[in-house]
Amino acid sequence: MLGLPLGEDIRRDRTRSDLERDFLRICRRYRLPIPEVNVEIGRTEADFAWRELRFVVETDGYKYHRGEQAFHDDRRRDLELRSLGFDVQRLSDEQIDEEPERVAAILREVLASRPHRVGADGG
Fold first, then answer.
1. Segment 9-51, tens digit of pLDDT
2. Which domain holds residue 91?
3. How many domains does the chain have?
4. Which residues pair with 45 in a beta bridge?
5. Which DSSP letter does residue 91 get?
6. Bridge partners of 92?
């Protein structure tokens, strides 16, 4: 059986933007646990999730997250994730681009402090 061609914009790491790829590079460079990428949790999709730790990172570039509707959509997603027991951390493109070491240090601390929940699927 032949599959449909995936096209050049489909990546093996499931990222959909340079910002998401940059965040994954931080995880790899600073040896953080690699999260799931662009995954469904409940009725929403998370950019990056560590399900067993009930922790999500959302990456927000100004280009795609400006305006009133984007602001409200982000808050709706955060509320949905929190209702499922997830903590949400939003990171801007500026933080990811200009402060990767600081981002990694904070994430390492947060991830280390989270209780590990075996079988926590979030969905």
1. 445 677 778 899 999 999 999 999 999 999 999 999 999 999 9
2. 18-44+52-113
3. 1
4. 40
5. E
6. 60
First to last CA, the chain: 31
Backbone angles phi, psi at 39, to 5 degrees: -120, 150
Q: What is the CATH number of the domain that holds 22?
A: 3.40.960
Q: Is residue 98 part of a domain?
A: yes
According to DSSP, the β-strands at 55-60 and 44-50 are: antiparallel
Confidence of residue 74 (pLDDT cuts 50, 70, 90): confident
Q: Is 122 exposed, middle or buried (0-12, 13-18, 19+ CB in 10 A)?
A: buried
b/e burial code for range 50-71 (CB count within 10 A of at least 16 → b):
bbbbbbbbbbbbeeebeeeeee
Q: DSSP readout, 1-70?
A: -PPPP--TT--TT---SHHHHHHHHHHHHTTPPPPEEEEEETTEEEEEEEGGGTEEEEEE-TTTS-SHHH
C-beta of residue 22 within 8 angstroms of C-beta of residue 99: no
Question: Which letter does DSSP use for residue 115 in this model?
Answer: P
